[in-house]
Amino acid sequence: MQKTRQIPHTFVIVFAIIIIAAIASWFVEGGEYARMAKVLPDGSTKNIIVPDSYRNVPGSPQTWQIFSALFEGFVAKADIIVFILIIGGAFWILNATRAIDVAILSFLRFSKNLEKSRIIRKMGVNNIIMTLIMIIFSLFGSIFGMSEETIAFIIIFVPLSIKMGYDSIVGVCLCFVAAGLGFAGATFNPFTIGIAQGLSDIPLFSGLEFRILCWFVITATGIIFILRYASRIRKDPERSLVFGEDQLWRNKAAGDLEIVKYETPVSAWIIFVLLMIVMLVYSLYYPVSVIKIGQSQLHMPAIPILTGLFAATGLVTLRKSVHFFILSIFLFTILYLIVGVMGYQWYVLEIATLFMVMGLSCGLAMGYGANRITELFIAGIKDILSAALIVGLAGGIIIVLQNGKVIDPMLHSIAGSMKDVGKYGSVSIMYGIQTLINLVMTSGSAKAALTMPIMAPFSDLIHVSRQATIMAYQFGDGFTNMITPTSAVLIGVLGVAKIPYEKWFKWVWPLILILTVLGLLLLIPTVTMKLNGF
After folding, report:
1. Domains of the chain: which residue ranges?
2. Lower CB count within 10 Å: N or C terminus of the chain?
3. In a 3-state reduction of DSSP, which class is residue 252?
4. In sequence order, what DSSP letters do the residues of 465-494 get, joined into one string?
5. Model pLDDT for residues 14-40, shown as the tens digit of each residue
C-alpha cells in the first residue's frame, strides 16, 4: 500500500531553515559594516550603518549553534513570547465567561436583521461587515504600525469567522492580514516611514498624497482577494485547506448559547466600582493626552473621556447581564490600547499588562474565585504554548544568521548590482533587496537602520528621489511579513489560530505574488512622474 505523503510540521520547517542558515555561514565570506549612533527627529537613537565602511572579517561558521538557537531565540524574542502567553491566559478567562459567545450570537442576529434590506442583501451583509473590519485594521497598520497587537484579536475573529460559515484563514485575514496591508501601505507609521525618512534626512511623513493612494490600492486589492476566497469557502467549506484543523474551532462553537444564564452578580458591580476608581485616578494624573498621528499632535482629554464612557456603558450593561458588562470591559481594553499606543508609545509590556488586567477583571466580575481564575489562566497558557515555542525557534534563525556574519555580506553584494541599470531598474533592485532582507529580518525599524544609510546616499548618485527609495523600502518591508517564517508575529498568529505554516504558505503565496507585482507597478510613478514630496 502506497504511503500518504506527510507534510512537515511547522517546527520541522523552521528548524530546517536554521540548518540552511548555518550551512550558508560556511560558504558566505564574512563581512560587516561599521555602525554609529544617530539621533532621529523624535529624539530616539538608532545604530545605523556607516556608508562605505564595509570590510571583510573572518567568518564564523555555525555548527552546534543550530541546537542552541531555540534557547537564544527565546531570549531574543522573550517579549513577544511572554506577550503571547499572557494573551492566551487572559483570553481563556474571558472565553470561560461565555461573553464572546454571547457577542457572536448577538452579532449574527444583527447580521440577519440587516439582510431584511434588499440593497444590503444584494451587496452581501457579510461582505460589508468584513470589509469594514479589514479597513479599520488596515488603518491601524498604516497609521501606528499595528502588528504584534493583532495576536490578541485572533482569538476573537477566528471563532467569529467559523460561526459565519468561513474558516480560520478568513479570521486571520480580518485582522492580521488587513493590518499587514496597511503596514505595507503605511501613511504615518512611525516605526517604518518615520524612521526611514528620519535616517534619510527628509521631512517626516512627506510625500503623503501618493502614500495615501498606495494605501488605498493595496488595501482594496487585498480585500477583494480575501472576499473572493471567503465566498468560495462559504459555498463549500470543505474546500478550505484547514477544514480538518478547524474542527477544533467548530467544536468550541457548537455549544448551545441559549442555555447561558443572563444575570448580574454582586461581584460584577464591585469590579465596576473598582475599575471606575482606578480610571478616575488616572484621569486626574493624565487629564490631557497627546495623540500623535504623523507629524500632527492632537491634545485631548482621552482618558477622562474613556472614563466617562465606561461609566455610562457599565451602568447600562450591568443592568442587562454580566456578559455584556464583560464585553464592555473588552471593548474599553481595545480603546485604551489605541490611546496607549498612539499617545504613550506603549509596546508589548504595557499591552500585555492591560490584557492581564482585563482577564482578571472578567473572571472576578463573573464571580470566579482565585483558584478558578488561576486554573483558567494556566489552561490558556497550555493551549497557546506551541505558538510561543515556535516564535522562539523562529527567532533562532536570525541568531544563526547574525552570528554567522551572513546578513551584512548579503546586503553588500546585492547593493553592488544597482549600478548602470537606470532609475526604475535601480528602484526595482532596491525593492528586491528590501524584500530579500525582510525574509531574514522582519523588524521594520532595524531594517531601516541597516539599509537606509546605504540606499539614501546611493539614490542621490543615480538621481533618484530619496522618497522613491523609501517607498521601495516600505513595500519590501511590508508584503513578505505575511509569509516569512522568521516573523515572530506571523508564527504567533498562526499558532493561536492553529493553522500549520505550510498550509498558510500554500494559501497566502498567490496574494503575496499579486502584492509584490503591485508594488513594482506603484514604484513606476516615483521615477516617471513629478509627485509632491518626491
Report:
1. 9-63+99-253+405-534
2. N
3. helix
4. -HHHHHHHHHHHHHGGGGT-TT-HHHHHHH
5. 788 889 888 988 988 888 878 777 776
- Helix, coil or strand: residue 462: coil
According to DSSP, residue 292 is labeled E
Phi and psi at residue 365, in whole multiples of 5°? -65, -30
Q: How far apart are the first and last CA of the chain?
A: 64
Report if pTM > 0.90. no
Q: What residues contact residue 275 under an 8 Å CB cut-off, 6+ apart?
A: 310, 314, 329, 361
DSSP summary character for residue 255 = S
* Contacts of range 331-337, beta carbons closer than 8 Å, 24 or more positions apart: 332/306, 333/358, 335/306, 336/306, 337/149
At 115-131, the pLDDT tens digits run 677 777 777 788 888 99
Q: For the chain, how big is the Rg over CA atoms in Å?
A: 24
Distances (CA, A) of 218 to 8, 201, 523: 32, 27, 13
Three state DSSP letters for 15-73: HHHHHHHHHHHHHCCCEECCEEEEECCCCCEEEEECCCCCEECCCCCCCCHHHHHHHHH
- Between CA 205 and CA 193 the distance in angstroms is 7
pLDDT digits (tens, 9 = 90+) for 39-96: 766 666 767 777 777 788 888 888 888 888 888 888 888 888 888 889 889 988 988 8
Which of 392, 468, 389 minimizes the C-alpha distance to 427?
468
C-alpha span between 268 and 361 (Å, rounded): 9
